[in-house]
Amino acid sequence: MNDSDKTLKQPDADQKQSADLSRHRDPPPAKVEGFTILHCLGEGAFGSVWLAQKHNTRTQVAIKFFTNRQGMNWALLSREVEKLAALDESRRIVSLNHVELNSTPPYYVMEFLEKGSLASYLSEGALPVHESVRVAKSVLQALVHAHGSGILHCDLKPANVLLDSDFEPRLCDFGQSRLSGESTPSLGTLFYMAPEQADLKAVPDARWDVYALGALLYQMICGHAPFRTPENEQKIRDCENVTERLDLYRKIIKESPRPNEHRKVSGVDRRLADIIDRCLTVDPQKRFPNAQAVLDSIEQRERYHSRRPLIALGIIGPLLLIAAMYPLAKHAMNDSLGTARKNTIERALESDSLSATILAGSIEHELEDRQLELERIANEPWLRKAVSQMEGKTREERDVLFARLKKQKQNIDQEVKKKGRATDLSWYINDVQGYHRWREPYSAIAYDKLYSYRDYFHGHGKEYPKESVPQDIKPIDSPHISLAYQSSVTKKFMFAIAVPVFAPEDSSKVIGVLSRTLELDELPKLVFPSAISGKTTPQKAGKNIERVVSLVEYRDWLLLAHPWMTKENLAELSQLGEHSFDLLSLKKTVSQETLLKIEQQASGNSHQDAHKKETTLRFESYTDPVGRISLSGAKQYQDEWLAALAPVGKTGWLVIVQERKPAAMRPVEELQHRLVANGIWAVAISLSLMGLLWLFVMLAMTNQSERLAIRGGVLRNIKSGGILTSLSERDSQRKTPS
Fold this sequence. Notes:
It contains 20 helices and 22 strands. With 738 residues, it is an alpha+beta fold.
């Protein structure tokens, strides 16, 4: 922030008065040999700039007189001239023609750029995006040359970017510049200088110019500098001195929300927005290190845009070629529609059988692991002793007896969660008569209630009515996986893994049953193991579901797990009546003969060598029982299915992998319609490919022409509300009388 920039912005009336005074002032401060001074272009803190004409060539130049000597550092003036001279060879920087430091007053002669500064054009609003990028690239090229010469500008802003007759930007005013090795601070202009630059002890850094470039590009696109609002300007204007202004400025930059208006401008792509954001990053370490890095990123963006049509051609061309060859290859491979149908069904069922076998094995291993874990716990001496002592104890005393068991359940649940598997709903112990003597978590509804009618207690493969349990009912004497049932506590459908607990001194005497339960709607976490979920997990939307995995119990043919069987749907189903669960039975959709065949096959597999006997059953026509239920979401499971069934060890469960038959057969049916049109399609696709290739070539050539036109200042960008004019068009409008 130099002295001339302490006031953020003059009122319009003051600006007009200053301009009038500059044009109608007294004679120039001095005569310059060889030049005719025409009129004043402007004034600053240390002098004024005048338009002059060279006698011998009639070319116009700008002469800067340093008339205000008070407080002026002549060494700094000398260094500014030296820096301009060092940068004179760059066509992107205003050239220095002549210097007279010993004159009274001192002056130097620069080339005159008749189109004025970029600031005057930005006062009319934002520029088109591609014109903004063009100007930014030119400014960056000037900065790259300056930085390469060891000079940092330190005061980049629209007023210091002049435009030549071709509207090519030229960088000027190196009064605040510093050598790259200097440690003297340099204040730029508010809302353009980096926050770390606004410090009287700051050491010059190339990243100052990077921030200013970002602010300049942001203003060209959005119409105003970042963070520059009337409120912020007034706050800074109210400060009493420069130090307070700098402190407040840094605070505004660091605490205000990041500027994002440029991301909403039409034509600003993600790459350009990211470049601006990185330039304006508050932390200099995260900013571009120098102007060359910014220029490289912008050029890389342009190369990316220019290559997009070719990239698209490279992707789409082969895909179209493959698509063109596919029906022909398909026609050659399938000589007969009958053979095609048979082969398609066989392949689908083979895939379903493989999936069913893998899934059945996964579930069997999971249940075996849980059963073995429960057997190990049931055989621990402390638990056998605790069960033998629980008779006649109060609930609190039983909780003390089984505190260790509760802790074991909690530890096991934690390990199961870490592996992404389903946790048990509950653990409980029944005594030898079937009474519920301990449960985790506790439930007053179940405690000390008789459950001898449950299959998990007696293992008879059925549920007895509560009022007609056999008098000689006994607990299981070997591990058992129960039938599915509806819990009287949670009202949810579940099953139990149960193991007997033997007396401490007699391993043949059962004194209780230890069980762990899982909800049916948690079974998919076992049915869909992550290792193969990509092949078996059903899709989610209506008729788009083409493959479904379910679990059935062949002792009563009830579905145990199915994608439709969520907590909400099961709750809705339970409201249909006492026998609502029967609607999920395969007995409603599969013939008794077929069920018997399935049962014989599954029973045989449980005790025969899998290598000597087929382990799965395949059905070319299967009806999903869920599709017959008149509840929400069930209709999508209607239709005819291909299905493969595989038994889950000795559990009495079957895994069903079903695939929608019309979807599986769709390629065959489509092939029948394509046979007639193959010849026509071959010709039509070939012609279309040639047309598309030519279209992309034309687009690439058109884009190249547009980029060349942009560099010449010809803009045709249409923005909401009308046409955004280029710098040259705005200049023409200024010259036209209103």
